[in-house]
Amino acid sequence: MSDIESLILNHLSTSPSARIDDTLKWSASSNLEHNAVIGAVKSLSVEAYVSATELKTEHYSMSSEAEDIIANGSQEFAVVSALIESGASGMSIPELMGAVGKDVYKIGFGKCMKNKWAKKTGDTLIALKVKGDVTDETRDHLNALKQAKGDVTATADAADVVLDDAAITALKRRKLITLVTQHYLAVSRGKDYAPKRQKRAADLTKEMLDSGDWTTTPFKPYNFATVGEKVGGGYLHPLLKVRAEFRKILMQMGFQEMPTNKWVESSFWNFDTLFQPQSHPARDAHDTFFIKEPASTVSVPEEYYERVKAMHEVGGAGSIGYRYDFKREEAFKNLLRTHTTAISSQMLYRLANQKGGFTPKKYFSIDRVFRNETMDATHLCEFHQVEGLVADYDLSLGDLIGTIETFFNKIGITQLRFKPAFNPYTEPSMEIFGYHPDLKQWTEIGNSGMFRPEMLAPMGLPKNVRVIAWGLSLERPTMIKYRIKNIRDLFGHKVEMARTRTAPICRFDAVA
Asked: I need a labelling partner for 70 at 20 to 30 A (CA). Which of 57, 77, 238, 462 fits?
């Protein structure tokens, strides 16, 4: 038990009234901090040693300007007094400012004119009152409040002045007084009052049982209806929930995840190895984020670089190439990758040149990509790309369609359509459309194709190896799954944290 608690209980025991009417006054008389007394009272009231009633008192405190007015008079009274002293000839504004001071003039002149104590004739100010006609009400009101110790209701008794609401409002508007509210408690004995607080045990211990003390020991009451504290664990963002589900599905299909933790790529891996010409519009600054420092990559596989350069300049594998001068400085430019296919090209190059030669593989990745696009309800400058590829002997377009249908069936999309399209590094290429049951329309959900021979030949893959690939954004199926209309409500600085906490788990019902 603290010393303050002891003092409170002792006072309630020895005081004739057995109460503390005002903890503010009692704290001051006992030389104690009022906040500490309040804390002790609340602690005692929990165990019903005391009963406390919350009360409050209000009074007005004076500003330093108000204290100056009480001592020297108000500014308006000073101005009118100076004008009365000047007589019928009045005073010019500079003369008045010199007489009462610039600061007093600024405040007092306006009040004086408002009260119709003076008039202005040309450049001359003349008093409309004579000595004895004007009383300094502002000073009288402040003085009355001070004598009543800020209590408006006591001003009549203290100074024989009644302050109405208009007078108080005027003083507050001039920031001469401020209302101060003080909270305090009235304390009396509680139903379990005792002169000394006895500590209550929270738990029944073995020692109590052995000694028999449990029969006399007071225990804290148990609240069996209370709710346990909410567990404040972390929450997965809706995008991560859908990502985890996609990842599980692709692994079930036998795909291996590619290492995509490198966001900065060279133009060589991001564009050139994909047989995308260096004059392609996607390589302009208005479509791609180029890195200023370091602006260029250090190195690329030199023999592979030469084969890629030759394919662009003169062609090969049945192609005539693009017939232009391939520039090394353009290929070495660093950028934020515009697609995860930059990683796919690196994995295929390693696959072609691994020890023991090529072996069929299935790869996938789900990671962030960046494009310099205008942001709107469905587009961001950064988004997540889901990509899958299969490298094997003698694959066909039918294998691609079958793989795509298997994946989308596993996420519950059974109605698919394929439309011919153009991609720089796939031929044939197809856009994937799925039927949206909520929108009741067909919507584009992905892109696909077979990697061109011009891309695969420089890597060193066997001639009859084909690579089928497809990709889609992670955001679009997530928006459909969680009924989100604006992509900025899903990803970015405007996302509500509450949505992350309340988003349900992601589950896709596979269709056999």
From this structure: 57
